[in-house]
Amino acid sequence: MIANLPLPLLLLVFILAAAAVVVSSIKATGLADVIADRTRMGEALAGGLILGAATSLAGVVVSVDAAISGDASFAFSNSVGGIAAQTLFLALADIIHRKANLEHAAAEPANLFQAVMLIVLLSIPLCAMAGPDMAYFGVHPASILMFLAYLGGVKLTQTVSEQPMWRPVQTRDTRTDEPEDDDEKDRSALRPALIFLALVAVMGLGGYVISQVGGSLITRFGLASSLVGAVITAVVTSLPELVTTLTAVKRGALQLAVGGIIGGNTFDTLFLVASDVSYRDGSLFHAVSGTDLYWLATGLLMTAVLLGGLILRQRAGPGRIGIESVLMILIYCTALAVQFTAA
Fold first, then answer.
1. Crossing angle for the helix pair 190-221 and 7-38, nearest 10 degrees?
2. CB atoms < 10 A from the CB of 315, how many?
3. What is the C-alpha separation between 55 and 264, in angstroms, rounded?
4. Membrane-spanning residues where (predicted)?
5. Are 241 and 264 in contact (CB under 8 A)?
């Protein structure tokens, strides 16, 4: 059993699992871009649906495993803490994109809609937590609503991507989604898709190992579940999003970078659905702490700031980041201060 390993060996297993997840995600980024071009799906949609869901797999495994073990706070905080951390990664990507403000250059209607969709999905758990404590067959009705809202949002995102009713103003800093050359885009997407699925399996296995190590740290050292979930496992399982975002920015696939984060965060809200189903002691939403709720509010606030930045499209000069990136960094740092104070 992983949980019974000596501490040095336990940490080594944790590092190896995290490395496996990160390396797999690096290779998956390039494949997602190829799949997007060969299927004519587009970078923003592929980033949100294919890459976002794949790189989120390790995190969902952590949350579900924690919920099955009865630790609601661990399951919940891993999900919402990951959303906050991944949104922060866009600010870091903005720093390394030296040509212009990332949110300005990656103008894409589908990303705007996914951000709105994410705000809606994060608001539903807030309503559930403020409402009466109820569960049918151990599942809160809000979980069903979130799942249906996600499916509906994905369909609408595809419509926005394929048939946009408006387009962003093109400037010299705007980076458009350009597919492969004509002699490449007609090639089959089957082989890259199969390799992509194999990498997804590696990320899922890595997520399980990370969950076991996180649970062991909580038990051995009496750490708060919200601390381990929101700051340790959430950040580690979110490293694929950091790597894929920075890799996509360096490749010039800016819509893929932004879409991967927002889409991944949207998919991450389903962690709560899966965790609520897996948690057998009633409603997950009424079994968490105020600190967990704070991380949910942090993710919601950071998403709203990001959406504002995508709409504003501030034209910061070369080497300067947008005001939305500065605000997201400050909001996240404040959340960390609150977490360590509460712990």
1. 150
2. 14
3. 7
4. 6-23, 44-68, 74-92, 112-131, 137-157, 193-211, 217-240, 252-273, 293-312, 321-342
5. yes
Cα dihedral 204/206/207/208 (nearest 10): 90
pLDDT band at residue 180, thresholds of 50, 70 and 90?
A: low
- Is the Cβ–Cβ distance between 121 and 269 less than 8 Å? yes
Dihedrals φ, ψ of 261, to 5°? -70, -50
Highest mean pLDDT among 1-5, 48-52, 243-247: 243-247
Q: What is the pTM of this model?
A: 0.84
**Looking at this protein, which amino acid is placed at residue 325?**
S
Q: Where is pLDDT greater, at 109 or 3?
A: 109
Residue with the larger pLDDT of the pair 43 and 284: 284
Over residues 285-303, the mean pLDDT reads 94
Q: Structure tokens of 25?
A: 């995600």
Amino acid occupying residue 82: G
Helix (H) or strand (E) holding 75: helix 72-96
Output the CA torsion sign for 329, 331, 337, 340: negative
d(CA 136, CA 126) in angstroms, rounded, equals 19
pLDDT at residue 220, rounded to an integer: 86
Residue 282 one-letter amino acid: G
The CATH fold assigned to 2-167+186-342 is A middle domain of Talin 1 (1.20.1420)
- With b for 16 or more beta-carbon neighbours within 10 A and e for fewer, the 19-52 pattern comes to ebbbbbbebbbbbbbbbbbbeebbbbbbbbbbbb
Residue 4 has what DSSP assignment? Answer: G
Q: What DSSP string runs through 189-231? A: SHHHHHHHHHHHHHHHHHHHHHHHHHHHHHHHH---HHHIIII
Contact criterion met (CB below 8 Å) for 90 and 306: yes
